[in-house]
Amino acid sequence: MSTDAIALPGTGLASRPIVVRLHEWVTTVDHKRLGILYIIYALVFLLIAGIEAIVIRIQLIRPHNDFVSPQVFNRMFTMHGTTMIFFVVMPVLFGFANYLLPLMIGARDMAFPRLNAFSFWMTAFGGLLLYFSLVGANGLYGAGNAPDVGWFAYAPLTSQTFSLGHSTDFWILGILVSGFGSIGVAINIVSTVICMRCPGMTLAKMPLFAWLNFVMAGLVILAVSPLTAAQIMLLVDRYLGGHFFDTQAGGSAVMWMHFFWIFGHPEVYVLVLPAFAFVSEIVPVFSRKPIFGYSVMVGATVAIGFISMSVWAHHMFTVGMGANANTFFVLSTMAIAVPTGIKIFNWLATMWGGKIDFKTPMLFCIAFLFQFLVAGLTGVMLGTAPFNWHLGNSYFVVAHFHYVIVGGILFALFGAFYYWFPKMSGKMYNETLGKLHFWLFFIGFHLTFDFMHIPGLLGMPRRIYTYEPGRGWDTWNLIVTIGVFFQAAGILVFLGNFIWSYFRGESVGSDPWDAWTLEWSTNSPPPVYNFATIPEVKSRRPLWDLKHPDDPD
To answer: Which helix (DSSP H) or strand (DSSP E) does residue 507 occupy?
Structure first.
């Protein structure tokens, strides 16, 4: 978005030199600009991670392929996984939270604007650090540069013996630096929700978007901190003679797995709770009904936050933790399915009997409901220790994980992009291109990740560079790779739609959707100060009450 789009009227900002406007973006502490910077940053890395995924799938399209070398393949899936989790999904979710949260609770900015800016630049620098590893003497295709230890970096792969050069150091430092940024954002979100709500907005009247991001921020503080500690221990192991994860000197490689997955599984809910927030705001608007069971939704959200901190070791059923530990984590994994399932029933109940408008945001949310349900069911299957023992290191897990991240989170994100784009830009997107994007991505997603389960069930291991013919995997890998190209086409349509719509789209008013939360009460795009007068609310749906005072529903 250009600087002019959120300028105060009469400032003459459009006549300023472009260098001056760029400087204002770089030094901004405005939550809306920082939100947009997060989103643009994440979209750039989405393109990079998408290219890496295409390279991986081309390599696996047929047996005995030699499109890339084994070392480059390892680098590709390391960089793809790390980029998607840490530098695409987390930043884009932080971007939406930054932009929308103060507007939704009637505040003029986040609680700590300077901390907000610092957090963004720490996150941005973390991503750059990771990719600085490609600038070495031989770059991506040479030795000892791009990280190749997997996005999980299991010991002893990260030791000096098995990871020469500085590639792993760039991986450690990139995540370490971005982790400080993530914790800063989380502290800001918690403080903003607690301290910055407008008059009348009690916790019981707060939008579900605010509730879900509030719980997400608490999880970030609890989950990213152990990962940060583990990264520091890993650096100590590599350069200061520590032996935290060195089994030959009394350390424990399994301890690294515990540290990583204490972050890694709550991280799934760090990512999915904001996706739930998007769906919880979009579905009522396009169903023309208030959300069903607000209090139950809030309770389920808090329950997910608590239970998610006790499920990490279902990633470790194959490492020999023992029957008692396995049983505990089986039960906790089953338990977290309950509040998650409650949410799905609430969204369906909101849609039931509603006047559903099948615009692009709603299409993505409906697809999210189905796909996240499937992801949850395969997650319960993998949460059963004997089943996990057989399939834990197969492509079945890769399919399940992508069903959550892509089928759940990314579909909800696309819905959010289309829903709030008019608010951020003042322009309406092209509906035809939006639906084309949906169908291309929907078809591509199901071609890729539905059929990826099958080679996993047939025994195809994860993280393999190539495979022998005649094992029953060939056709399925071909179909999976074809689906990736459908998804890539959908992404290109998505980006083209927003670029075209920003410059040529139809201008819209403050509330094109007849929505119910406070961000739609201000101009599109909002002024720097958000609200000329701080609003006062009397219910959970302040705009609907103003526009439809005689409507009992």
So the answer is: strand 506-507
Indicate yes or no: pTM above 0.70.
yes
3-class secondary-structure state, position 2: coil
All structural domains of the chain, each given as residue ranges with its CATH number in brackets, are 3-547 (1.20.210.10)
d(CA 240, CA 227): 19
Provide long-range contacts, Cβ within 8 A and 24+ apart, for 476-480.
476/451, 476/452, 477/60, 477/61, 477/62, 478/61, 478/62, 479/447, 479/451, 480/57, 480/60, 480/447, 480/448, 480/449, 480/451, 480/452, 480/455
Q: What are phi and psi of 427, to 5 degrees?
A: -125, 150
The string of DSSP letters for 42-80 reads HHHHHHHHHHHHHHHHHHTSSTT--SS-HHHHHHHHHHH
Distance, in Å, from the CA atom of 432 to the CA atom of 414, rounded to the nearest integer, reads 15
DSSP 462: T
pLDDT per residue as tens digits for the range 389-428: 889 899 999 999 999 999 999 999 999 999 999 999 999 9
DSSP state of 198: P
> In Å, how far are 418, 425, 520 from 105, measured between CA atoms?
21, 20, 12
CA distance linking residue 360 with residue 414, whole number of Å? 9
The token pair at 193 is: 């929700």
- What is the secondary structure of 224-267 as a DSSP string? HHHHHHHHHHHHHHHHS---SS-GGGT--HHHHHHHHHHHHHHH
Q: How far, in Å, CA of 398 to CA of 390, rounded?
A: 14
Report helix, strand and coil shares of the chain as percent, to nearest 5: 70, 0, 30
CB contact at 8 A, 494 and 437: yes
What share of the chain has pLDDT > 70, as a percent? 94
Cβ contacts of residue 393 below 8 Å, gap of 6+? 318, 461, 462
A 10 A CB-CB count for 138 gives 12
Task: Kindly state the average pLDDT of the residues 151-170.
Answer: 88
Cis peptide before 17 (omega within 30 of 0): no
Q: Chain-centre distance of CA 71, in angstroms? A: 28
* Residues 326, 329: Cα–Cα separation, whole Å: 5
CA separation, residue 282 to residues 50, 208, 277, 516 (Å): 27, 11, 9, 10
**How many H helices and E strands in the chain?**
17, 2
Per-residue burial over 8-46, b if 16 or more Cβ lie within 10 Å, else e, is: eeeeebeeeeeeebeeeeeebbbbbbbbbbbbebbbebb
In the numeric block, the tokens 């739930």 are attached to: 276
